[in-house]
Design goal:
104 residues; mainly alpha; two-stranded antiparallel sheet; 2 helices; 12% strand; elongated
């Protein structure tokens, strides 16, 4: 946890330094439009769009895994309930049955 915090602070600081050093305006052509923006902003938008595309690609498998996990948890709960009923019925049957004499 502390490592992640330190890594995040260092990465954030490096991002600020990068943005300050690359404030020159660049022109980007996208789908017939010319967009003029600072280089750091263009790169940030590119990285953000890459992250979003990755999330959209991963989303179906994440949903499928979550549904599978819910099914497994439900099955576990049902089996635990069945086992608890078995234990109580077995304990009750042992209490009501007469003790068997020891064989010698």
């Amino acid at each position: 946890m502390v490592f992640s915090l330190i890594f995040g602070v260092i990465l954030g600081g490096m991002s600020v330094v990068f943005a300050l050093q690359n404030s020159a305006a660049v022109t980007v052509q996208f789908m017939g439009d010319d967009i003029t923006a600072p280089l750091a902003l263009v790169l940030l938008g590119t990285i953000l769009s890459g992250v979003l595309m990755t999330l959209f690609v991963l989303m179906p498998s994440l949903i499928r895994d979550e549904m599978y996990l819910k099914a497994i948890k439900r099955q576990k709960r049902e089996l635990e309930d069945e086992y608890a009923k078995y234990r109580t019925s077995r304990a009750e049957s042992e209490m009501t049955s007469e003790p068997q004499p020891a064989v010698q």
